[in-house]
Amino acid sequence: MEATGGEVRAVWIAIGIDAAKEVHWATAVNQDGQILLDRKLDNAGPEIAAFIAELAGLDGERLIGIDMLGGVASLLAAMLIAAGERVVHVPGLAVNRARQGSVGGQGKSDPKDARIIADQLRLRAADFRPITLADDTVAELRLLVSRRGDLVVDQTRRISRMRYLLATIHPSLERVLDLTNQGPLILLTRFVAAAELRRLTPRRLARQLVRAGLRQTQAESLAAAAWQAAASHPEVALPAEAATAELIREMATEALETKRRIAKLDQRLEALLSHHPDGALIRSLPGMGVVLAAQFVAEVGEIRRFRSASALAAAAGIAPVLRQSGKTKRLQRPAYANTALKRVFYQSAFCALGDPVSRAFYERKRRDGKRHHQALIALARRRVDVLWAMLAQRRSFDPHHRKAP
Length: 405
Known about the structure:
By secondary structure, the protein is α+β, with helices and mostly antiparallel strands. It has 17 helices and 10 strands. It has a 6-stranded mixed β-sheet with strand order 5-4-3-6-7-8. It has a two-stranded antiparallel sheet with strand order 1-2. A two-stranded antiparallel sheet has the order 9-10.
């Protein structure tokens, strides 16, 4: 404690850390802006432990801000939290904007960013969300959700490439196949070029597809469509047709394997959600399937990081922000947000249109003159309030509740 003009006030220290792969930079200032500590520390256990011991020697209550969540800052944050320090996340956007508004703001360095983080904490500590140490379930969910996202992106790119290649040598077949389904991919692992398909009758082609694992009706329908496409294709030699067909077969095999890997990940996500205390509550909300619920938990972590439903909606970028200058005043969509979290709420709102209560809310917004996208955003915003109340009250979704969406 220190006395100021007869008034006693608590001494507290703001520590800003600019995290990096190999070397972090830390700056500590008191509430008057005086620098108490300013040094680098290696991203290694012994160096971080020595830094924590040095912080303990500072006289005053401490608040630590880091400009990164997870990643190369994971070890640093975990050791700080384990030592009992209060740690919050200061977003990189806040650091960049504060630096640009300072003298010489075009220049950037790790010491300067660490000082800016410390100053931001000193001036508005209540604006930043705490960093919590995720349990094993949440940590694994984050890893698997990230991995699933990588696989989905690769699969989308692969299928787009397959469509292009198939259209160059057999465009009529490309038009009748939906390469997001397993059956057409199985077909393309065996037959691609028109000449290959014309060597078989539709019945023989269907038998081969059945042996590959397709149902009889599915195989017969697919075989008939593929054979008809091949029959209508002109008998003309195309450049590199055989090489293109072989490449498509290889990519179809990879696509099938990726589908199996994604399905296996989905099973693991479902198992993890069943053990998470909020898993059943989140999934009871219409539109929140396994993948979206897992993505929500991975992005949010502990719901208490957000002070209110409005704070959660603001983080997701689905709450309008005020823009006012002089007599001009309007609400607009925020330019910066957690896009992954926004996608969770938007996609779940779209999936929930099959629910009568959510559909009624959506239709009411459409009657009010909202476009489809605007009505979905409104529904997503309403669902944030509902999901927040469910988690806060530890109650499953009740469609008959008067405040249901």
